[in-house]
Amino acid sequence: MKAIEKMMRKMEPDHHGKWAKFHPVWDGFFTFLFTPGETTKKGSHIRDGIDLKRTMFVVVMALIPCLLFGIYNTGHWHYVAVSGNFDLPYWDQIGDKIIYGALQVLPLVIVSYGVGLGVEFAFAIKNGHPIQEGFLVTGMLIPLIVPADVPLWMVAFATVFAVVLAKEVFGGTGMNVVNVALTARAFLFFSYPTMMSGDKVWMSGLSDVANSPEGFTGATPLGELATMATNEPIYSSIDAFSAKWSVWNSMMGYIPGSVGETSFIMIMLGAALLLYTGIASWKIIFSFFAGGLAIGYLLNATAVNGYMELDPVHHIMLGGFAFGAVFMATDPVTAAQTSTGKYIYGFLAGAMAIVIRVLNPAFPEGVMMAILLMNVLAPLIDHYVIQSNIKRRMKRLKTA
What we know:
Blueprint: H1 2-11, H2 23-33, H3 52-83, H4 94-127, H5 135-144, H6 152-167, H7 180-191, H8 221-226, H9 238-244, H10 247-252, H11 264-276, H12 282-301, H13 312-317, H14 321-328, H15 339-359, H16 367-399
Helix pairs in contact: 3-4, 3-5, 3-11, 4-5, 4-6, 5-7, 6-7, 7-16, 11-14, 12-14, 12-15, 15-16
């Protein structure tokens, strides 16, 4: 490492030289690999071994289990689609499934990072400021929240849109109002709905299969559940749905869906790392699940269709609920900042996700819309929490 550090120091552009405008690019790579050599000369400062880059790197590490499982799961459902056999053993043809999944998923990751970091570098060079590290996490999140078959050019287009209009126009990392990765997904969802919804996009390669067996569908469990709230339900009862998509399979992730959102177990491994390192707020995660469960049980008690009868525990295992709770709602920039506000923010986000799912069949997955809505409302929640504290303290002062 000493040799690499020495080589990179020799490559450092002179601040007043010909390549001065490219210094932010060099600085971004150098400080990612090595601790900066500059130290403060006076004043009291807390010395810590972690900075924003390393914080982001920990989040990326927490996402790796979801990525690895998503690669395999993509391969499995591809072979299910090609064979037309839902009963294909999950842990057969392991090597073939990994290879196919990697060939589908890794290009999404490469394009996301390549395009997003390119935009970041361009803004850093233009504005003459250091590289902002926020995209280290966003670049991994975007491929994990889309179908494996989404065209690469769409991923590139959505990444540019999200980085420029959801972050850079607000001032860059730490200044954005809404989650950047969810903005990219929202852009894809509303601009190219046929590539982000329906029953042909969730099993890689299904759209290329000429003749699927009669009754074969590539819909996600949530897509099939949405029919339970219509006059033409796929299942005769919620028990029939649970027989096909059991709680166990949903928890393990043996279901079709976005690349990294299907496995509750892999998501919880990532959550354990984020909570252990103190990077994610347990208050938001806990209240997000509490809000979802509370609304789920309320819908159970007032059920008028099969969808409302679904076990709330099963609800939180499906779709992007757990992924959103752990990796999206906990974004420290767009979430509530006050302690009480985090409980309110998380609870309302989780509750809203289930409400949108069940009561609006047009959106089988409500997590994206719920978190984006609560991102916008987070400052308002914090404002009223602070005002409430001020009023309470003023009353104490008057009675003293």
